[in-house]
Design goal:
about 100 residues, alpha+beta, four-stranded antiparallel beta sheet, homotetramer
């Protein structure tokens, strides 16, 4: 599972149009993902996730001279579908529901 | 706005019960937040967010000898309520809806 | 121990002058730190580190409308002086020296 | 330029031997890098850096069931050798030397 965000650093404070282009690439990748207010979580195998990051980077590279890309991977052997189950398992553990 | 995750590094691969305790602190803080599969986004002023991080850290400190805490802040002057509006503005820009 | 970087997002691609102001605050804090090409590592107690982050944020807030600040904490109970010893212990383990 | 750290999450609080194996891979890659107390900065083209991350991941995957890998990329078009020059340019801007 991968949590990522990618931003141009040379486009001023308003970044929605650049984020939109990158997310369209993620949405068309076929991988399961969830958008949150500060990034995107994507589930997949290592090679799939790196191919996706590369496509996102290439899209932004065309229009920006300085790009900041962050990626945090959490890999757990033999565990799949966790993008769906993780929040539920934490809520069950806490005995309450959280805002999502 | 703050995107954060906090984990004990000395408790093995299964971490839901520790995450649940921290999220209960976030949920009771009164600040607006959204849980995602790899972290939590919280909206608030600088001082409010640092107080919340401190409470989360103190909870985990009681039961763990090694803690990893990550925090990514994105502050934009004069912008509030963005935890609600950010995803919408990106979707509008892209002309499509994304999975959330 | 804290690894941090802080950047204005509305100042274009050249950021050295902003980074220099923040590092001057770190240097004058009295805490032990090491600058690297993509961030700064600072050693201290939780409260000391949060006070320092606040001072850095306030300096940049005066001149920027959008700030990105990242902080990764690694706390290990009862362990101090690790900013000096960590690289050595990894080199000893590897049986070779690394570039620093 | 890439700032990265990679850790097993299922090996307890003492991680030097795992970090040592990964750093040996980095050291033998031929890319320019600098180790700091909380991570490693590597300079290279996008494809080179992703190949290196893959090799590091594969080494750790053999011995760990849960891996946390973080990567922060900062790409600036047409700028090379910055791992050497960045600290100097910040020090020049500040008019003082910092601890490295």
């Amino acid at each position: 599972m991968l949590s990522t965000s990618i931003l141009p650093l040379d486009k001023g404070a308003s970044l929605s149009q650049h984020v939109a282009k990158v997310l369209t690439v993620v949405d068309e990748s076929g991988l399961d993902y969830r958008l949150n207010p500060m990034g995107t979580v994507v589930e997949g195998e290592w090679d799939e996730l790196l191919k996706l990051l590369t496509r996102c980077f290439r899209v932004l590279e065309k229009e920006s001279d300085r790009i900041s890309l962050q990626a945090k991977f959490d890999f757990r052997k033999g565990v799949r579908g966790v993008i769906e189950t993780k929040i539920k398992s934490v809520q069950k553990e806490a005995g309450r529901s959280f805002r999502t």
